[in-house]
Design brief:
The structure holds two protein chains of two kinds. Chain A contains three helices and five strands, in the order E-E-H-E-H-E-H-E. Chain A has a five-stranded mixed β-sheet with strand order 1-2-3-4-5. In chain A, helix 3 links the parallel strand 4 and strand 5. The radius of gyration of chain A is 12 Å and the shape is globular. In chain B, strand 4 and strand 5 form a beta hairpin. Chain B is built from three helices and five strands, in the order E-H-H-E-E-H-E-E. In chain B, helix 1 runs antiparallel to helix 2 and helix 2 runs antiparallel to helix 3. Classes of the chains: A alpha/beta, B alpha+beta. At the A-B interface, helix 2 and helix 3 of A face helix 1, helix 2 and helix 3 of B.
């Protein structure tokens, strides 16, 4: 199963809806999309994780990089609707408290 | 119950194969009646060990050999990931306390190694038999009640 990214822009926010599997093979594509969104969004980047079936630490590292970049650009970076598997990985890496997470979209 | 149920896989160090490796590991582990959330954790941690071999030992080269051994060993399920790449510096695979980090001290690298330590009951990072690296991960087999 590949990665599918659906990008939408509303007002001052860029949202990326991610579905599929994020691993060492697919995370570079997610990384490019997130960093591009941070550059172009007026104030807010939202990463919707509802459709993510699997995420490994390279996916988590990608989200951390997005958060860092957003802070540098003075923009808001939010995760929305993480699936149970994503929540588990964030908890295992103790990074669940680092992100702003909205449980539902 | 003493019958062995070992599985050996040779793969290229190609990230495109990680999905197939995860499916295989999941199928093997499920035969032992592990709880679903533990199965997810094991699949994740093995994926991390394979990804580390590709990224670090082979510096991202896709055409090298990766070997995976899944074994029953007494009260344990034993998983071994072997590569023939660059030896891994011991300080890169030492266990760290995973305290709750702040954004300032976040270092994304090394997350995979810490995940492996969190998931398994026993973890050994060893040099390969001739060269490269071996990661041996052991999980206590579930009590019958769990399956």
């Amino acid at each position: 199963m590949a990665l599918d990214l659906d990008r939408s822009v509303t007002d001052d926010r860029v949202q990326i809806a991610v579905s599929g599997e994020v691993d060492l093979y697919t995370s570079p594509e997610l990384r490019s999309a997130i960093l591009e969104a941070v550059e172009t969004a007026d104030s807010e980047v939202v990463v919707d994780l509802a459709g993510v079936k699997y995420m490994d630490s390279s996916g988590v590292a990608t989200l951390v990089e997005g958060l860092r970049s957003a802070h540098q650009h003075d923009k808001i970076f939010k995760l929305v609707a993480p699936s149970p598997q994503v929540t588990k990985v964030l908890e295992l890496t103790r990074l669940d408290s680092v992100f702003e997470i909205e449980p539902t979209a | 119950m003493a019958r062995s149920c070992d599985l050996r896989l040779s793969a290229r160090s190609d990230p495109r194969l990680l999905g197939s490796i995860r499916s295989l590991v999941r199928g093997w582990v499920e035969a032992f009646g592990l709880a679903p959330d533990r199965t997810d954790e094991v699949v994740l941690a093995i994926d991390e060990a394979c990804s580390n071999a590709i990224r670090h030992s082979y510096r991202g080269r896709c055409d090298r050999a990766l070997e995976l051994n899944l074994r029953t060993a007494g009260e344990f399920l034993e998983f071994e990931v072997c590569d023939h790449g660059q030896p891994c510096p011991p300080e890169h695979v030492s266990r760290r306390d995973l305290h709750t980090p702040t954004l300032a001290d976040l270092k994304p690298g090394g997350l995979g190694v810490q995940l492996i330590y969190v998931v398994f009951d026993e973890v050994e990072f060893r040099p390969g038999k001739t060269r490269g690296n071996r990661v041996i991960m052991r999980l206590r087999r579930p009590e019958r009640a769990e399956g």
